[in-house]
Amino acid sequence: MPDGTDPVAELAPQTYQCHLDNRDLTDQVREELAEQVPVAFRKRGLRPFEVIVTCPGTTAPHDVSVSGQVRYSR
Fold first, then answer.
1. CA-to-CA distance for 17 and 24, rounded, in angstroms?
2. In terms of Cα–Cα distance, which of 44, 52, 51 is closest to 74?
3. In terms of C-beta density within 10 A (0-12 exposed, 13-18 middle, 19 or more buried), how is residue 25 classed?
4. Would you kindly state where each structural domain of the chain is located, as residue ranges?
5. DSSP bridge pairs for 23
6. Fewest CB atoms less than 10 Å from the CB: which of 11, 14, 32, 66?
């Protein structure tokens, strides 16, 4: 995050992996959630989400759709 704080307080599940490459996509998921949801629209409690992130892949990058729940810290 630009100011060094992570607005994503909690993810459920806690980690996300690409099912093709077994690469950890958790950081990309957190970044996408922080960018997509403006502070004014962040509600308290766990909320469902679905985002598409790019896995670097073993041979080529590819998009991965992930879903879960998020709680924002602010």
1. 5
2. 44
3. buried
4. 7-41
5. none
6. 14
CA distance 7 to 62: 26
Tokens 């992996």, residue located: 17
Q: 33-61: string of b/e by CB count within 10 Å (b at 16+)?
A: bbeebeeeebeeeeeebebebebeeeeee
Q: What is the dihedral of CA 27, 52, 34, 38, to 10 degrees?
A: 180
Tokens of 49: 């989400």
Give residue-wise pLDDT tens across range 15-29: 999 999 999 999 999
- Cis amide leading into 13 (omega within 30): yes
Question: In the numeric block, which tokens belong to residue 13?
Answer: 């599940």
Give residue 15's pLDDT. Answer: 95
